[in-house]
Amino acid sequence: MKGTYLGEFEEIVLLAVAMLAGDAYGAAIVTEIEQQMSRSVNLGAVHAALHRLEEKGLLSSRLGGATQERGGRSKRLFTVTMAGTRALDNIREIRNRMWNSIPKLT
Amino acid sequence: MKSPHPPKLANWLLHWFCAEHLVEELEGDLEELFVQRTIKYGLQAARRRYLWDVLSCAHPFALKKEPGKYPKPPILQPAMIRNYFKIAIRNMWKNKGFTAVNITGLVAGITACLMILQYVSFELSFDRFHKDFDHIYRVTNDRFQQGKLIQHGTITYPLIGSTMAKDFQEIESYTTLSYTGNFKLQKHRKVFEENGAFADEHFLNFFTFPLLAGNASTALKAPNSIVLSETNAKRIFGALPKDYSTLIGQNILVDLDTQPYQITGIMKDFPANSHLQYGVIMSYETLVRTWGSWVKTSWDGSDMWHYVKLKAGSSAASLQQKLPAFSDRYFQGDKVSGSVEKFYLQPLSKAHLFSDFEYEIGNVNNGKAVLTMLIIAAFILIIAWINYINLSTARSLERAREVGVRKVAGATSGQLVWQFLAESVFLNLIALVLSLALAVLLQPALNKLVDKPLSLSILWGGGFGGPVMLIALSTVFLGGMFLSGFYPAFALSAFKAVSVLKGSFKRSTKGVWVRQSLVVFQYTASMVLIVGTFIVFRQLDFMRKENLGFNMDKVLVIRGPELTRWDSTSITRINAFKSELKQYPGIRAVSASGTLFGHRLSRTFNVKRVGSDQDKGVTFSRMDVDLDFFSTYRIKMLAGRDFITTDSDPDGRKVKNAIINHSAAKLLGLADVQAAIGQKFTLYGREWEIVGVVSDFHQQSLKHAIEPIIFRPYYYNGGFYSFKIATTDLEKTIGLIRQQYQSFFPGNDFSYFFMDEQFNQQYKDDQVFGKVISFFSLLAVLIASLGIFGLSSYTIAQKTKEIGVRKVLGASVTGIVTLLSRDFMKLVFIAIIIGCPVAWYGVHLWLNDFTYRISIEWWMFAIAGLMAISIALLTISSQAIRAALVNPAESLKGE
User: Fold this and answer.
1) Are strands B225-229 and B280-283 parallel, antiparallel or unpaired?
2) Interval B676-703: pLDDT, tens
3) What is the DSSP string of B107-118?
4) C-alpha angle with apex B656: B652 to B657, nearest 5 degrees?
5) Among candidates B666, B679, B713, which has minimal Cα distance to B609?
6) Is B59 close to A44, i.e. CB distance below 8 A?
7) Contact, B647 vs B662, CB < 8 A?
8) Strand, coil or helix: what is A15?
9) Residue A92, min C-alpha distance to chain B (Å)
10) Cβ atoms B160, B177 nearer than 8 A
């Protein structure tokens, strides 16, 4: 299943895009991940991951509105595509199945 | 308060590497995070994170270009390159004059540079072929009497080399040479002259002079051994390479030595870039027999050269520090040899170019002159490239439309840069090829001028630096080619298509200072070269015209009969020969002498005046002359009498009358020349009487000081005969002399020269230097004029309309010419101001070599400056006048 395999960091970025629902762009994603995981993330790494995810068709993007705090520069807004949602569901299903297969240890 | 801003460097970095379409969003993200982090973590941390983030963006995704809307062909397409060349050729063809000027400048510059570099490379390559070249040193020796330096020589005492090798463990090996000079080799009743030397058994292994036959370790061991060069083996024996070994053991006669010399080896000819140049080497042991055992034992007789080779890792500087103690140990101040001896180690690398010693063993050249030539070569090349830049930019106006149209048709600046760069490389390559051809063509003339076996192969790896040199040179040429191409290429490609095509095109003044400073540089260099030429020629002229203190006009000199043996009748025969020739009306005077002018005279140490309170001796140079010498050369007697017949005797020990020169009288403390007559001094353990004092004369070139000289009435079979000629029929006179010479001294070769020519040979290097510098300053001025020609035509073309308007308003032609010339003259003035001190320093250094020299005067600079100004003025005004004469109706109708 080449092309849909997700690395750990890609998965986190994909999840962050899904969480931010419609307002996902580079800086916001970095802040979100840093908050959620309390670890520092490089902008370059995030953009690289976004780029890859877009190439795989899990994300789509458009240039969006500019805000004052970014010096009037426009941002690229990312949304999760159907394929992306399916990939997330798929991962979750696999994880759940695996969690469920763990024998109960009392 | 100003809002905090992210680090500029990081931003610049981002713009530099990041694909254009991504910069905006990335920068936006970066700034947003920066603002957040400044609040959260503080400015420092935020800035650090910013930089870090930028660096993390250096990722393939960020570098990728956005696929364009239109297909974009690669910049260097074969079709386009063909087109570039086509356009280049058409352009060159269209502006034939300009192209010719441009290529001429480049060719002249590159050719000159190539030729000078050959010479410099050859000179710098001297002696580098020796194995262990950097470990070899020559022992040099300064001698002091009463604290005064009396000899600064490369010769020293016989045992210095061997004793040093014994005393200092840093020394791996040594070799000793002595008695170098011209030898007459005799075989089958034929005489062959050749330069040679006596050297000890280590010589052939110490230096890298390989043997083709014979054993290098033993060849110079036995007395009367001789090693011949390959050329001599061919010349004397007609031997082929395969026969060399059959020559070993054969005999040959040398000079007057009755004992034959046995050939023990055939060596390869010494390379041309060796400071030692000998065709025969004889064993040092031979000298023990011919000169006496002192050559192996003496601590006060000196005529030896010593070379030592240090062990790897030993420092010459630390060995040098031990030499004063060495001198004390063996010479005990001045107790042993009469002088305080100081010894130095001179690296072999300095023996050819940077050696200012007396009694040099070999081939010495002036290192300063060689380096000056290198600087001149660099100047010329830079001037040529500058010219190229100026001329190409000057032409840019004509090509502005082309650039405009190309840009409209979709060419990017990058493509245009490539186009113009290709053009300049093309032109440069043509120039380079022509230069190489020209250099080959001019090679024989150059070789004749400098008297050196030069060729381009020296630069291809045969000379200094080997193949590294070739790489370095190619880098310089290619680098210069591209650099000189870059400026015009960028200037041209920067034109804005819209303004060019609208016709309201005006060149910005940006970049004017670049061209102006280039012109200043060119003129500064020209100025320095003009002053240099001027001074060099005045000094050469001064030396030619300076009163030397003797008259050498029309003096023909022949070599004495060296192969005739000395006996009790010799003086009688010499006198008979002289008086026989004196009868001829064409010959006014004849004189025999042991030495002549122009050579370093031998010295005699420890001369003491009888009855003086001086306990230390003084040092004189000596000349052995006959009774007609002073009258032949018209040297003035200041006091006393000339030599008379009875002063001389076939038995040299009976000679006791001498003449001294004025300097020598002063040195003996006899300021009054009349009082000197009749005084006695001791020399060689016996007393001599001063019978006359002659005025001082320049016994050597004006680079040397006048020395105290003692003249002894000795006769030689060698030496020289000088004939004062009073006729115009030289041919006949020489014929007569030859005829008499051969009947009086059969078996000797007859050869002659003219004293003045021979004396002026001492200035040969300076004359070559003069010719070279004058040629190159002419070249530099020429190229610089081309440059200013190009630049002024450019400026004037820009001002066509201005000139038109001014004329309409009533400006005069003179007014306009002045206006146009003024700016350029300013540059020339600046160049003169910069050039004067530089030139002063340069010529000052050069003149320092001459003991007797012209003084540097302000008007020399004034003349050079005037020359520079008038050349510039001529160049500019020719164009300015033409521009000023144009009918304003012509220049203004285009608007």
Assistant:
1) antiparallel
2) 898 888 887 788 999 999 999 998 888 8
3) HHHHHHHHHHHH
4) 120
5) B679
6) yes
7) no
8) helix
9) 29
10) no
The first and second tokens of residue B713, run together, are 């009435």
Q: Could you tell me the CA-to-CA distances from B640 to B120, B622, B643 in Å, in that order? A: 52, 19, 10
Q: Which residues of B touch A42 (CB under 8 A)?
A: 52-53, 56
Distance CA B872, CA B828 (A): 8
Query: In whole angstroms, what separates CA A90 from the centre of its chain?
Result: 15
Cα(B665)–Cα(B618) distance, integer angstroms: 11
CB-facing half-sphere around the CA of B679: CA atoms within 13 A: 24
Q: What is the pLDDT of residue B452?
A: 80
Q: Is B749 helix (H, G, I), strand (E, B) or coil?
A: coil
C-alpha gyration radius of chain B: 37
Q: Does B23 touch chain A (CB under 8 A)?
A: no
Query: What's the confidence (pLDDT) of residue B101?
Result: 79
- Residues shown for chain B: 895
Convert the pLDDT of each residue in B387-397 to its tens digit. 888 777 777 76
Residue B402 is predicted with a pLDDT of: 82
Beta strands in B770-866 (DSSP E): none
Q: How many cross-chain Cβ pairs, A to B, lie less than 8 Å apart? A: 73
Tokens encoding B387: 């010219």
| Other Cβ atoms closer than 10 A to B188 | 7
Give the HSE-up count for residue B720: Cα atoms under 13 Å, Cβ half-sphere: 21
Measured in degrees and rounded to the nearest 5, phi and psi for residue B526 equal: -60, -45
Residues 77-106 of A with CB under 8 A from B: none
> Which residues of chain A fall below pLDDT 70?
1-4, 105-106
Mutate to test the interface with B, among A51, A73, A75, A77 (most CBs of B within 10 A): A73
| Average of per-residue pLDDT values in chain A | 85
The closest alpha carbon to B839, from B861, B866, B863, belongs to B861
Q: DSSP H helical segments within B799-812, as ranges?
A: 800-808
Which CATH topology does A8-99 take? Arc Repressor Mutant, subunit A (1.10.10)
Closest CA to B228 of B666, B236, B880, B601: B236
Residue ranges for chain B with pLDDT beneath 50: 1
Q: Do A66 and B28 touch (CB under 8 A)?
A: yes
Q: What ipTM goes with this model?
A: 0.88
Q: Whole-angstrom Cα distance, residue B753 to residue B741?
A: 15
Q: Which residues of A touch B13 (CB under 8 A)?
A: none
**Closest residue to B29, CB basis, from A25, A40, A45:** A25
Q: How far is CA B408 from CA B411, B496, B497, B570, in A?
A: 7, 10, 7, 99
Cα–Cα distance measured from residue A83 to residue A75, given in angstroms and rounded to the nearest whole number: 23
Rounded to the nearest 10°, the torsion over CA B160, B163, B167, B168 is 50
Contact A69 B24 (CB under 8 A): no
The residue among B25, B54, B63, B65 with the most chain A CBs within 10 A of its CB, best to mutate, is: B25
- State which H helix or E strand residue B447 sits in: helix B413-450
Give long-range contacts, CB 8 A cutoff, 24+ apart: B73-79: B75/B414, B75/B415, B75/B418, B76/B418
Of B276, B306, B251, B284, nearest in space to B195 by CA: B276
Give B164-220 as a 3 state SS string. Answer: HHHHCCCEEEEEEEEEEEEEEEEECCEEEEEEEEEECCCHHHHCCCCEEEECCCCCC
pLDDT given at position B74:
63
pLDDT at A104: 75
Tell me the residue length of chain A. Answer: 106
CA–CA gap between residue B841 and residue B855 (Å, rounded) = 13
Cα separations (Å) of B705 from B487, B565, B701? Answer: 54, 36, 9
pTM summary value: 0.73
**Cα separation of B486 and B421, whole Å?**
6
